[in-house]
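Small ribosomal subunit protein uS17
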Amino acid sequence: MPKRVLTGTVVSDKTDKTVVVKVERRVKHALYGKIIKRSKKYHAHDETNEYREGETVRIEETAPMSKLKTWKVIERVDTHATPNHA
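Tokens:
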């Protein structure tokens, strides 16, 4: 079975070798039909601490590394993002 790959925005890079990535998806409301946004946060492994808050990254599912980390960052998608901290 292929590994899942998701694209999202880094919302936190405060922990060592870990980033929190927010992945948004658009779904249609079952009754009213309006398109609404749903989001979920994933803890992803960042071995070199190179990804910063605000960047768009691609993450891939891996074997569990800890209680929360079952994803790893593959690559940076958007290089023009400006980090929120100095």
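The longest strand covers residues 18-28.
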